[in-house]
Amino acid sequence: MTATYTIESFIGEVKEILASDGSSETGLNKIAERMKVLARHPELAGDEPMGNIHTGSQSKPLYVDDSGLILVRAKFGPEAMTPIHSHGSWGVIGVYQGRDQYQVWRRNDDGTGAGDADVEMVEERILEQGDAVVLPPPPQDIHAQRGYDGEPTYEYVLFGANTMILPRLYFDPEQSSAKEVLPGQR
Ligand SMILES: [Fe+2]
User: Fold this and answer.
1) Ligand 1 centroid – CA 93 distance (Å)
2) 126 Cα: distance to centroid of ligand 1 (angstroms)
3) What's the gap in Å between 15 CA and the centre of ligand 1?
4) Which of 147, 151, 156 is closest to 127 using CA atoms?
5) Ligand 1 centroid vs 94 CA: distance in angstroms?
6) Which residues pair with 92 in a beta bridge?
7) Per-residue pLDDT averaged across 157-180, rounded?
8) How many angstroms does the Cα of residue 1 sit away from the middle of ligand 1?
9) Ligand 1: centre distance to CA 143 (Å)
């Protein structure tokens, strides 16, 4: 008999990886492999109404604990890219429905917070259903995204710290600046 795969199965695997490898590059890449499995289980996302992770109307996390580890669902519409932003935590994203036009940005100065910030886009790719990507630890957890080709995309996002309460940074590459924004603010 095959055991049923659940959110708890995924979280158990994540905790084992974090215990042995931490949030090193190796650890996060291993978690991304597990995230690809979770992303093939859209039914585990449930059917609660879902808000946009970047406007603050978030749905209840699928998992959260005292260590800060948190698993949420996110929906990104096709209308416009999100702001170029960071969450203040490593993360792993897995697409469970639709496709994601996903941009990786890099901060080239030695800053970590708001104020002057020199950022450039280093990669843009289309994430397909079942793909997973790693958000590296801050300050390089910078990205932007939207649903690709006129359709929304739906994702699982695992963060190492509770990003629902941590301030985020929104970057303006034209002005070479970053501003701090609390979740729920624009
Ligand atoms: Fe994000």
Assistant:
1) 9
2) 16
3) 22
4) 147
5) 12
6) 134, 158
7) 95
8) 38
9) 6
> Nearest CA to 46 among 145, 156, 186, 140?
156
Which residues 6+ apart lie within 8 Å of 22 measured at CB? none
CB 54 within 8 A of CB 170: no
Cα distance between residue 74 and residue 93, in whole Å:
10
Give residue-wise pLDDT tens across range 3-13: 799 999 999 99
Rounded to two decimals, the pTM is 0.93
For residue 158, give both structure tokens: 């695992």
Closest CA to 153 of 126, 174, 186: 126
Q: Is 168 helix (H, G, I), strand (E, B) or coil?
A: strand
Please state, in angstroms and rounded to a whole number, the distance separating the CA atoms of residues 140 and 134: 11
Query: Exposure of 107 by Cβ count < 10 A (0-12 exposed, 13-18 middle, 19+ buried)?
Result: buried
Q: Is the peptide bond before 139 cis (omega within 30 degrees of 0)?
A: yes
